[in-house]
What does this fold into?
Amino acid sequence: MASASAHPEQVARAFLTPRPSTKRQALQLAGIETLRVSTPQGAISLQRAGVGPAVLLLHGWEGQASDLAAFAPPLVKAGFTVWAMDLPAHGDSAGQQTSIPHSARALSGVGDAIGPLHAVIAHSVGSAVLVEALHSGLSVQRAVLISAPAYYERYMRAFAAAAGLDANGADAMIALLSREIGVEAREISLPGRAPHLGQPVLFIHSADDRIVSIEDSLASAAAWRGARHLRFEGLGHRRILSDPAVVDATVEFVNITK
It folds into this structure.
């Protein structure tokens, strides 16, 4: 039975509405600049530092650009320009609601504005955002997907169940969301998109991740021709972003310029 207070429309709105971060942090890099770029999804906040080919850092749901701060100094040292982006409805970017497709359109707008992207390093939902943008034509030479979820619909159903919706209510919520985001929810799937993408890609995941199962990225890597997958232990969903071995493996992969 659905909760008496749970309605598909309300749950759908809640699903699209990230909670604001309680601790805002900027990237700590010498010479860092803050910019805003207009996109089809509103103004997007960016931070930039360094000189060289562009590498974009892309955070996850209810995160912020500085979540990937550990990657920035070694990338700048290796001769890259680091761009850190706040997703729509996050940080200093515009909006109160967003989704994977909406955020992917914003990412594509950022790509158009800042020029060629050598690589994107994405965490969690940011990985799904990147894959949707790649599917729509965003040009990126290399991708690193950390703790990447596989199936958007599965997370919608889990959210619906946690909100008290029964199966029929979840179906109604997903139908509402599919209309709102302009894509059928079941189509937003990394394993489904992967066979149509050709970029070199590195998946990184910790086996003890309780937010996104490592089975998700294993399924995606298996479907992506030539993908590499690195498995770690004991790093969870967020500690993985500051682990020195993860940072080193990422920078090494990104630094392959030919």
Observations:
- The domain at 33-151+188-254 is CATH 3.40.50.1820 (Rossmann fold).
- The chain is about 35% helix and 20% strand.
- The chain has a mean pLDDT of 93.
